[in-house]
Specification:
Elements (H helix, E strand, L loop, with lengths): L64 H13 L4 H15 L12
Length: 108
């Protein structure tokens, strides 16, 4: 006894045009794309709430794999994140050079 044939997606009508073309939306009816500053909480509205990445800048950090392993282990042992430890290190560096007056790890 063999299995019944598996229907192809093209036979199921998934990739075909709808039968009633009057219900489809034309490009002229589509709303204009919003700018970032028109979207609630979008990029153009300043920095987002603490604990989010929105509004923050990303930079890559090159280091030895052993260093990243150690940071992950420290984060686990201290019940925190590697990101929090990176920010702590940045704060210490800024304090050392006199650029972190009145700031804490959350401000970095």
């Amino acid at each position: 006894m063999s299995k019944p044939p598996v229907p192809k997606l093209s036979q199921q009508g998934i990739f075909s045009k709808p039968h009633n073309h009057t219900t489809t939306q034309s490009p002229d009816d589509a709303p204009a794309q919003l700018r970032d500053d028109e979207i609630p909480g979008g990029k153009g509205q300043g920095r987002a709430a603490r604990g989010t990445r929105e509004g923050d800048v990303h930079r890559s950090l090159y280091a030895k794999p052993e260093t990243f392993d150690l940071i992950r282990r420290l984060a686990f042992e201290r019940n925190t994140t590697a990101q929090a430890l990176y920010r702590e290190g940045l704060l210490l560096m800024l304090q050392k050079h006199g650029h972190a007056a009145g700031k804490d790890g959350e401000d970095i």
